[in-house]
Amino acid sequence: MNKLMMTGAILLLTASLAMPAFSQEVETETTEAVNVTSITTDEVSDEVGVEVVAETEGEAENYVNLDVLLAGSTKSLDALSEDIQALVFDMDYLEREELYKKNLTKVGLPIFLNWIPGFGTGSKKQGDILSKNISLGVDIGVTTLLVSGGVVLTIGLLGDMLVAIFTFGEGDMDAMKAFTDTGLGLMIGAVALWGANRIFGTVMPIVYAKQRNAKLKTVLGLDEKVEEVSLVPVINPVQEKYGLALALKF
Predict the structure, then answer these.
(1) Could you report the per-residue pLDDT of 184-231, keeping only the tens digit for each?
(2) What are φ and ψ of residue 117, in 5° steps?
(3) Does the pLDDT at position 140 exceed 50?
(4) Distance CA 58, CA 72 (A)
(5) pTM score, two decimals?
(6) Mean pLDDT score of the chain
(7) What is the C-alpha separation between 193 and 189, in angstroms, rounded?
(8) What is the rounded (10 degree) CA torsion for 95, 96, 102, 105?
(9) What is the pLDDT of residue 1?
(10) CA 107 from centre of chain
């Protein structure tokens, strides 16, 4: 009986000594597993973060390039259509809408410039080359008629005055009437043409702006607000899984 008790005590003592070592080993393995999981999760987060940053920087660069292209190019939107669509492909709706608002064709200043100084200056500023050429040609014609009419009218008036002086008022006062009438006719025509060109210079910037803004809206893909599709990175550190989720925005 004493031997049996001693044997039991020895076994109990051995077990109690072995338990801390076993517990420490299990704890170490658990800690290592957690560390490995943490490292894996961190690496995935870093990779996804780098991809997101690169994508964001690319979109920002496209935004700047497109803004410069729209603001500085002298080409028509039809000629720039392919370049615009290539840059706008990865932009979301709000970025495209902001670009649209920044590059809207204005009408106030062009109308003012078409009045003063004229010669199609306002239409040229808008980029409307056809209207600029028409206004320029008409204003050149107005200037020509005005100067010519002034010269002819002056000749007629001076002629009448000279006749009156040298004939002591007894000469033919109607001798220069043809010059006077012609000069007045040319000047009246110049004024009428000037007025018509100012009406043209007021209407065309409005028409051109409306057409260009509608075309800009089309090439930027803003005709109607369609759903936005994006991929969102998803990380599950507990199950050590990661992936991409498809997000739809209406």
Answers:
(1) 999 999 999 999 999 999 999 999 999 999 999 998 988 765 555 566
(2) -90, -5
(3) yes
(4) 21
(5) 0.63
(6) 75
(7) 6
(8) 180
(9) 46
(10) 17
Give the residue with greater pLDDT, 240 vs 32.
Answer: 240
For the purposes of burial, counting CB atoms within 10 Å of the CB of 149, is it exposed (0-12), middle (13-18) or buried (19 or more)?
buried
d(CA 122, CA 132): 8
In one-letter notation, the amino acid at residue 88 is: V
The C-alpha atoms of residue 210 and residue 218 are separated, in whole angstroms, by: 13
Residues of the chain above pLDDT 90, percent: 38
Contact predicate 157/180, CB 8 Å: yes
SS (H, E, C) 18-75: HHHHHHHHHHHHHHHHHHHHHHHHHHHHHHHHHHHHHHHHHHHHHHHHHHHHHHHCCC
The pair of structure tokens assigned to 244 is 């991409």
Report the distance separating Cα 45 and Cα 48, nearest Å.
Answer: 5
